[in-house]
Fold these 2 entries.
Entry 1:
Amino acid sequence: MARRTPDREYVAPVQKLRVRYAKRGRLRFASHRDFQRALERALRRAGVPMAYSAGFSPHPKISYANAAPTGSASEAEYLEIGVAARLDPDKVAQALDRALPPGLDVLEVVEAGPGSLTDRLAASEWLIRLPQQEPSGAAAAVAVLLASTEATVQRRTKSGLRTFDVRPAVVRLAVEADAGGDDGPCAILRVVVRHTVPVVRPDDVLSALDVVAGLTPPVAPRVTRLAQGPLDEDTGTVADPLAADRLRGGDADGA
Amino acid sequence: MPVESVFPRLELLLPQVQKPVQYVGGELNAVTKDWDACDVRWALMYPDAYEVGVPNQGVQILYEVLNEQPGVLAERTYSVWPDLEALMREHDVPQFTVDGHRPVGAFDVLGVSFATELGYTNLLTALDLARIPLDAVDRDASHPVVLAGGHAAFNPEPIADFVDAAVLGDGEQVVLEVTRLLRGWKQEGMPGGREGLLLLLARSGSVYVPQFYDVDYLPDGRIQRVAPNRPGVPWRVHKHTVMDLDAWPYPKQPLVPLAESVHERASVEIFRGCTRGCRFCQAGMITRPVRERSITGIGEMVEQSLQATGFEEVGLLSLSSADHSEIGEVAKGLADRYEGTNTSLSLPSTRVDAFNIDLANELTRNGRRSGLTFAPEGGSERIRKVINKMVTEEDLVRTVAAAYGSGWRQVKLYFMCGLPTETDDDVLQIARLAREVIRTGREVSGRRDIRCTVSVGGFVPKPHTPFQWTAQLDHEGTDRRLAQLRDALRADKDYAKAIGFRYHDGKPGIVEGLLSRGDRRVGRVIRAVWADGGRFDGWSEHFSYDRWMQAAETGLAGEPVDVDWYTTRERDYAEVLPWDHLDSGLDRDWLWEDWQDALTGVEVEDCRWTPCFDCGVCPEMDTHIEIGPTGRSLLPVTVVNSGAEALRA
């Protein structure tokens, strides 16, 4: 053998599937890389016939979008896969969910319609629980931030310390009624952020509350992404990014 | 007594530590059983970081064997990194299992698997975090039995103060025996308290309980004798041997971690034991005799592992995998079966002969072809006779050239430095050999882009081997020889770029040597190192030679012994060795004769294909060689990815 042969042959995608999944409970501590490995193994276990990229070292066709940071839970993570056969999205959803560990849960699979999925993911809605934080204090800080025109924070990223303004990305921010519990008070923030560059994460919003109003949560906050999708600028709400695909899929089934 | 999960408190700390996923458990195929529905509860520890510990086969096997038992649960715990350790101390969170996040102190047994002695300080961290007294004699009936296993447990004397018990050899059956004894003791109302339980274990003959043995020393520091101090406790404790591997097809459901680990593959053990007789190799000596898994057993386990995990690679494990009596059929059968499925098969340890190249070609038919590794171990023909690594230079050069000739571009060669009788010239021969390999490889392949990497490890004499009596080379000597070798490899410009060189300095080897052949007095050194902050000694960024030497000064003060005494001193036949009362089955006189043969360069054949040479194991342990060929072949099975049909629209 004169040279190394490619590990796999190029397999063209015949169908694209969009997957919504959740990262829950203790598995919210999985990093995006951890999730990628788990997903690739789960696809193999589930027997999903993947399409592979061309090139010397072909990879299964998977596109990830806007992964939630390590430590954040999410009900609204999205990815797209290219498969080598026409598959039933519901069956793929079931098989893939079974193959992933509990806590990485597949919520929905739809056949991709026209348009880019990442373009539709324009904003996120997050729920931030601040255990042992008096809601009144949080509400006061939120009021200060909303009244500010700018809130500059710093975050250490792979490319070094970055300084950026959080305020323009914050579309909506409110303190929800305290559910109250045995463990003392708990403030709950609901925030909608526009996806900007660099992306403003929940911890950046908390840093902004600290910068403008000196709010420092007593213990580590618990963060969950509730939704991701197109942003309605008028109402400040986040819509379902798969709605368009689902509509099309429904038509196809009906035909 | 209800046991609460520490997770609610732990999760508040996790956002502040590196790679938090390693502490959360929830791996595919992990098991968490109902605490109150079980009456015997094991915590199994691998005393290193999660990424190193989670693929460990020993722990995975025992985890599954125990959890299959009704009324028995087993959970896993690993060493926490110093960042989390500091937070756990600050917030009073105890050492926990990653399965149920239960406090380790609440279990009946803490079983610790020591693949290497460098995990000893991590044991102390775990005990301390678990609020288990460091000294076995300070524990009461509320504390777990701290039970050591793994290869290092064949000389547990340096940790004798810290462990309650140790078991030698294969764990599958003895964990069930310990479970049975423990259950009986609990059901009878814990007669005799903790000492009653330990006596029960010691008298069973299956378990070594160090505190029931007294060690007396001679004025010069050597051991005078080791004797039981309780009636009914045996003078010697024997190792355990599983004879029928096909009856123990574990792990059936290998763990698939979310975190990245050192081995991203499933592993199937194709045989246990090795009788090649390499004199430096403790694993080969203490795991005799050879017991093969059958070709059909291997085929079933490979398929089961792939189905259960989704891994892309299966390693066919053993101490010398190409020696399986039906390895050719295994390799071809598996390669045929997984043709077109992107599944790689690997043989982690390969022998130096041409047959291996065919085997490697076959195994990589469906997957990645990276590099081949060979272990000639010694640079000169003379030193290879001393260590009984029977490979001639001609064999080696021809084999490696054949690898280059069949398309492999990268070959790794493993050697050791500091072997008994070794001279500077023996080590310098490695450079000549490497050049010869490249020269022939270029000729055969007609290419100049072939490479070989020379990897050199320092030799550490180990208990229960013919080299247990030898003097270890001091670290200055090791470093000097390695520097000479490096210069020699660089000297010839025509080859220097084609030959990579990897080595470690000699200092960690001296500490490993101290711990490997140490006695109970070394426990004080381990304790002093740990108290001074010593952690993760197997990691160069955490290891501190100076800390160990300072701790040895204080720990061994007033004793007629020091680090050199334990490491660079040759022992004689009559000296009582710290592990002489622990029976690996090897006849001490045979080991001594083999040591003498080493000094005169006399080789020993493999007893699988030549007559028995009386190492003593089979008669002593009532075991026998268990090998094929069976003449059976791999059945074609429906392979992974066939599930695609069920998903079609």
Note: Chain A has two domains: 15-119, 123-229.
Entry 2:
Amino acid sequence: MKDTFNVPLEEDEIEVKLWEYIDGLAKADEMSAIEKLVQENAEWKAKYQELLEVHESLNLVELEQPSLRFTKNVMEEIARLQIAPAAKQYINSKIIWGIGGFFITVIVSFLVYGLAQIDWSTSQSVNTGVLDKITDADYTKVFNNTFVNVFIMLNVVLGLMLFDRYLNDKKKKLMKEA
Amino acid sequence: MDIISLVLKGDQNAYSILVDRYKNYVFTIVLRYIKSREDAEEVAQDVFIKAYRSLAAFKGDSKFSTWLYTVTTTTCITFLRKKKLEVHSLDNERVFEVADSVDSGMSANQIEQKSKVNMVNEAIKMLSPDDAQVITLFYKGEQTLEEIAQIMGKEPNAVKVQLHRARGRLKEKMEKYFSAEVRDI
């Protein structure tokens, strides 16, 4: 023992080394030294046999089995709670950007149309604010059609609903991270 | 990872493959903490439901089993805290003695009829939850010491020492309660 390891080992230490050997966790130089000791030293050999029996018994340990309905119960519970998987994206972001782009286009169009109506050269225009000028513009050419008005109203409502959903998702995400 | 991708895309049924694959491992680990099979089955089901909810959090930087066993451990500890039961630690020798007295007492006829495998299984059930868990994860969970350390929230060296001690305690249990079978071995 003294030749292989620098100091004689206590029984506990022998056990530690043998477990490392059995588990394949010993260092390379120690592996061959322990192997030699197991073959040549009676104490090491006896202890090795003892520990190997325990190790082999543990390898035979069987897993416990739950009831036959286990998987079914889990899947039913998931379906019952209507748990949505933590998917990274529920909605295609291109659709969201598309709708957002449409509304931005509509708003910008209004602004451009309004600004285009303004007569910047008159003294009255210079004294009033830009916003007043935009609101004073004549929009009847665009909004004199009932159908168009209804269509625009619907789009505004849809846009607000989508915006509300987006804000809710954002809120849930922030709460989850918190 | 393919199955996980399918589940994340919305294929709920694909998750049943994962449940079938890991249910025995999860149930066994839960039983190391919770001795009642009914409670253990309920907790094991909770583990899979929690895992389903947070599947997107699994980044794939460790084995799925390692991640799942971590969820299992935390779920068990939470359950025991709610039930206000004490989770015994490895080094609490006094508690160990109590566990001995609670878990002992098999009749001579029962002992005689036990096979070697059942003997080891019964001996493991007599260990503390930490000891039983580290043995189960090492021998049945296909986890390395580093992965077990991650699951149990300990340092790898501490897990190595715990495994060594757990095996020593198991041997003592087997000698104390199944001495006839041990001699025959």
Note: Chain B is about 75% helix and 0% strand.
